[in-house]
Amino acid sequence: MPHLPSVFGMTGVGRRRSRNEDSFSVVADMGVAVVADGMGGHPGGDVASQIAAETATATLREDLALPPQSEQSQPDRLSSAMRRSLIRAHEQIRARAELEPHLDGMGTTITAFAVDPTSDLFVLGNVGDSRAYRLRAGELARLTRDDTWVQECVDAKQLTVEQARRHPFAHLLTQCLGLEDAPKPRITEGSVQIGDVYLLCTDGLVGMVDDATLVGIVTSGLGDLHHPNGDATLRRLLDAANDAGGHDNITAVLVTIGPVRA
C-alpha cells in the first residue's frame, strides 16, 4: 500500500555534559534517518558521529535513487545499500583520522533506517548501542540488538535485562565505527504499516526513560498521522530524559508512516 513517511529529529546536550557528541541526519522525502553517538572520553567523538551520520545519509540517498537492477530483489537492494552506507561511514572516519592524527581513536555508534516509498519495505542497520524501536498499535518493539558487553551477558543469561541496564559497564561497546577492526553491521528488513512510528535514539534517551514513558509520549504526541506534531513530541522525549537526570547527550528521530493523500 502506498505510504508517506514523515521524519523529525532533535538532539540536546543533556544536563551533565558540556559538549554534544551525538549527531543525526535525515532525508525526509525518502524516509531516511540516521543517529550516531560519538564515543565519550575519546578524541573527536563529535567529529566521528558527524562524519558517520552525514556519510551514511548521503550514501543511502545516492544508492536508493538509482534504478533497481533487474536481477536484484528489492529487499536485497535495500540491504545492500544499508550495509554499504555503514561501511562507507566507517571508512570515512578512518580516513579522517589518518589525515588528522590527533583524532586517532575516535569512534561512534550508528543506527540507520530507510523506507522504500514505492512499497511497504524498510531496512535498518546498526553498529553499537544506539537503538531503533517500532510503535505499532500501541505495542513497542525493539528492533536492534546492542553491541555491548552487558548484552552478551544477557544473551548468555549471566545478567538480567534490569541488571544490565544498571551495570557500571553498561556502555562498554563490543564494536563501533572508526576503530581498527572493521565493523560487522547488523541489517534488519521488514514491512511498514500505516500508523507505524519508528524511533531511533541514542542511549542518552533510553538510559533515562523507560519503555512505558516512551509509549505514552509518542502515542499522545502523534495521534494524527496526517499532521504529526513531531517536533513537540521530540521535545517531550528530551525533556523526560533531562528530568530523569540528563546524564548523557540525547538524540531522537521519529519516522511516522501515514497514508498518501489523494
Characterize the largest beta sheet: strand count, sense, and whether it forms a barrel. Answer: 5 strands, antiparallel
Give the CA-CA distance, first to last residue.
Answer: 13 Å
The rounded Rg comes to: 18 Å
Task: Domain count, please report it.
Answer: 1
Task: Tell me the name of the CATH class.
Answer: Alpha Beta
Number of discrete helical segments: 7
Strand content: 25-35%
CATH topology, by name, is: Phosphatase 2c, domain 1
| Overall mean confidence score, pLDDT | 91
Supply the helix-strand structural class. Answer: alpha+beta
Using the alpha-carbon principal axes, give the shape.
Answer: globular
What is the CATH-assigned architecture?
4-Layer Sandwich
Low-confidence stretches: none
Any idea what the CATH superfamily is called?
PPM-type phosphatase domain
Instruction: Name the helicity range.
Output: 25-40%
Give the spatial strand order of the biggest sheet: 1-10-9-6-7
Q: What letter string, H or E per element, gives the SSE order?
A: EEEHHEEEEHHEEHHHE
Count every beta strand, where a strand is a DSSP E run of 2 or more residues.
10
Notable features of this structure?
262 residues, alpha+beta, Phosphatase 2c, domain 1, five-stranded antiparallel beta sheet, 7 helices
Ordered list of secondary-structure elements with their pairings:
Elements: E1 3-12, E2 22-27, E3 32-37, H1 45-64, H2 74-99, E4 110-115, E5 121-127, E6 131-136, E7 139-142, H3 149-155, H4 161-166, E8 186-191, E9 197-201, H5 203-206, H6 211-221, H7 230-243, E10 250-259
Antiparallel strand pairs: 1-10, 2-3, 3-4, 4-5, 5-8, 6-7, 6-9, 9-10
Helix pairs in contact: 1-2, 6-7
